[in-house]
Write a structure and sequence with these properties.
Layout (H helix, E strand, L loop, with lengths): L8 E3 L5 E6 L11 E3 L5 E8 L9 E6 L4 E4 L6 E5 L1
Antiparallel strand pairs: 1-2, 2-7, 3-4, 4-5, 5-6
């Protein structure tokens, strides 16, 4: 069985489909990918919400190794939303 990566995709306030990417490499983040926050804590990407107005950066949804789930601004984990 071949598993395909599920990119984090969402529509923004204009209806444009965006994907969550690494700020430095511009490679798409995928559900289940491990990322580090600015404190160095390892988190697992579980989804996201694209910007809902022009001044918004959107959110990235993550889970910690301890089992708690939360959402952050994408920059906290070195990510940003980009057009496909």
């Amino acid at each position: 069985m071949v598993r395909t990566a599920k990119h984090v995709l969402a529509k923004d306030y204009t209806g444009q489909v965006l994907t969550l990417v690494n700020e430095k490499t511009h490679k798409p983040l995928v559900v289940g990918q491990k990322v580090k926050d600015f404190r160095g804590e390892v988190l697992t990407v579980v989804g996201g919400q694209a910007p809902h107005h022009s001044a918004s950066t959107g959110r990235v949804h993550v889970e910690s190794a301890k089992g708690w789930a939360t959402e952050y601004f994408p920059g906290v984990v070195g990510a940003k939303w980009m057009k496909l």
